[in-house]
Structures are given as C-alpha cells and as structure tokens.
C-alpha cells in the first residue's frame, strides 16, 4: 500500500480528472484483488519461490521500460539500504509468505487475512514508536485477530475444526506488508510513489535471485496457464496496479483512497469464484467479517499512525 508524503496538498481536480483518478483507483483495486486467485493458478505448476522469482523479474523488466521512458531519478546513496529493506519486506518476503500460505488457504480467505495489516501497523507503532493505543483500539485488535483465527480454522478443508498452519504464513505476509508501509513513510517525502515502488521492486528482485535457477527449470515443464498467471502477476498486479494506485493517490484524498482498500477482499472473493470456482466457507467468511470489523475499529481509534 502506498501513502502520500505528509503535508502534500491535493489541488482540486476537474470533473474529467476526478473520473480518471477514480478509474485508476478501481483498476488498482481489481488488479490487487486478482493477484490472490492468480497466485493459486501459478502454484499449480510453480513452487512458491519459483513463482515469486518469475513475478518479480517480470515486474522489474516492466518497470525498467517505464523508468527509461520517464527518466526517473536515481536514488540517493544513503537510501539504498532503506530500499533494500522495503524490497525485502514488501516485495520478496511478502510474496513468498503469501504464496506459501495460498498453497493451502483459499484466495478469498488470504485476502481477508492480508487486509488486517492496519492492525499490525498500529501494534508496530506502539512497539517501536511508543505510540499509545486507546482502549477501543485494543478491542478492535482482539476482534480482528479473533476473526483471523476463525479464518484459519475455517480453512481446515473438511478435516474438522482444527487450525490450518498455512494461515500463519498469510499472517506473516500481512506483517511484512505492514512493516513495508511503516518503512515507506519517511521515503515518500523524498520520492514519488512510483519511484519508491520501482526501487523497492528492483531490490526485491535482487533478493529473489537465488530462486532463479530452480525457477528456470520449472518454466520448462510448467503448464501455460500457470506461466501466464505469473506474467499477469508481474505486469498487471505489480507494475500496472502500483502505477494506477500512484496516479489515483495523487488526486484523491488519502482517507477515501485508503478506505477503498477494504473492497479488495470482496473483489478477490468475486474474482476467485468466477476464475477458480472457489469461495471461502461460512466460518472463514464470518472470521473475515470480524477481522475487517476489527480493522475498521482500529483505523477509527488507533491514532496518528493510520492517519498518514
């Protein structure tokens, strides 16, 4: 998730500009939602690390073309370590953890768990920035994590009411993206959202290099639909989605854009149904409703961290 630098004032857009911004926002939401079922398709032929390596290499190449055309600025020398951290957490770490989790967790349920990341951001702020968490926010945290536990139990796939360990990897993915959001905040005072994303993806690709030899072997035997899913993840769900998000975020008030992120699980469940004929069971959906309700409580009462 990309948020604008603090103190950036948005000029009042024209009606056409507003329409374009809303269209870009919708495109970003749909593409990010489509990533969850696309990962499931990719995993039919690729291992989690193979899929991540192919996705990031495709995204890096796509961003390379964009960067050459737009002639984006080179990063400052002192920022390379920071981009390495955002690339590792928000790209490589997030995608590997999510891909491992989705080997056993449905796409819709995974999207519900990942969207609890605002709760984790508040906890990280309390732990490292000493921000105080209001009592009401603690209630939201408990509700959200309770809902996540129900999702994990609901994903046991007919084996009785037991915890699905793979859901912990999806929780790890949510933690990774939460750390990424916290790390990006100071960088967006010096870089545009597009620049920040491009350098994070490139560094994420560097961390995925050890996976490339095995990935190249997997490509030779992979089913075409799995390879196309990986390319779709790289070009559309990574490069195009972040480009659309950056365009929208520069023109839409932050609160409205961030609130729209809650639509991602709903869109992901719909796409998963039509693409995979897959839908979370009733227990997982109940857990998702609780998890997102907890997120809403936390974002309304959780303090400055989520205010931008």
Provide an overview of this structure:
- The protein is mainly alpha-helical.
- The protein has one domain (37-307).
- 73% of the residues lie in helices and 0% in strands.
- It is built from 13 helices and no strands.
- It has helices spanning 15-42, 48-70, 80-101, 107-114, 117-128, 135-154, 166-187, 193-207, 212-221, 224-249, 254-260, 264-276, 282-301.
- The protein is globular and about 50 Å long.
Features:
308 residues, mainly alpha, 13 helices, globular, disordered N terminus
**Cα Rg:** 19 Å
Averaged pLDDT: 86
Number of individual domains: 1
Shape: globular
The proportion of residues forming helix, as a percent range, comes to over 70%
Structural class: mainly alpha
Q: What is the terminal separation in angstroms?
A: 12 Å
Beta fraction: under 5%
SSE arrangement:
Blueprint: H1 15-42, H2 48-70, H3 80-101, H4 107-114, H5 117-128, H6 135-154, H7 166-187, H8 193-207, H9 212-221, H10 224-249, H11 254-260, H12 264-276, H13 282-301
Please sum up the structure shown.
The protein has 13 helices and no strands.
């Amino acid at each position: 998730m990309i948020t604008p630098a603090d103190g950036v004032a948005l000029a009042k857009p024209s009606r056409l500009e507003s329409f374009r911004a809303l269209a870009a926002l919708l495109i970003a939401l749909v593409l990010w939602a489509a990533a969850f079922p696309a990962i499931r398709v990719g995993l039919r032929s690729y291992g989690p690390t193979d899929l991540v390596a192919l996705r990031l290499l495709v995204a890096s190449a796509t961003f390379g073309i964009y960067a050459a055309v737009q002639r984006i600025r080179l990063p400052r020398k002192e920022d390379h370590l920071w981009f390495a951290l955002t690339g590792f957490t928000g790209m490589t770490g997030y995608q590997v953890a999510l891909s491992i989790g989705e080997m056993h967790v449905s796409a819709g349920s995974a999207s519900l768990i990942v969207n609890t990341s605002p709760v984790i951001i508040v906890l990280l702020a309390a732990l490292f920035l000493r921000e105080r968490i209001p009592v009401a926010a603690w209630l939201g945290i408990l509700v959200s994590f309770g809902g996540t536990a129900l999702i994990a139990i609901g994903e046991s796939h007919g084996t009785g009411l037991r915890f699905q360990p793979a859901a912990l990897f999806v929780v790890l993915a949510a933690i990774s993206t939460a750390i990424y959001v916290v790390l990006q905040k100071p960088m967006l005072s010096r870089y545009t959202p597009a620049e920040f994303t491009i350098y994070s993806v490139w560094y994420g690709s560097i961390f995925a290099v050890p996976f490339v030899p095995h990935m190249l072997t997997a490509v030779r035997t992979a089913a075409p639909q799995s390879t196309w899913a990986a390319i779709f993840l790289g070009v559309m769900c990574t490069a195009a989605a972040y480009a659309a998000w950056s365009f929208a975020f520069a023109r839409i008030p932050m609160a409205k854009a961030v609130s729209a992120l809650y639509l991602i699980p709903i869109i992901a469940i719909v796409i998963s149904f039509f693409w995979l004929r897959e839908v979370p069971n009733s227990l997982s959906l109940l857990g998702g409703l609780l998890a997102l309700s907890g997120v809403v409580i936390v974002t309304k009462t959780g303090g400055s961290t989520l205010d931008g």
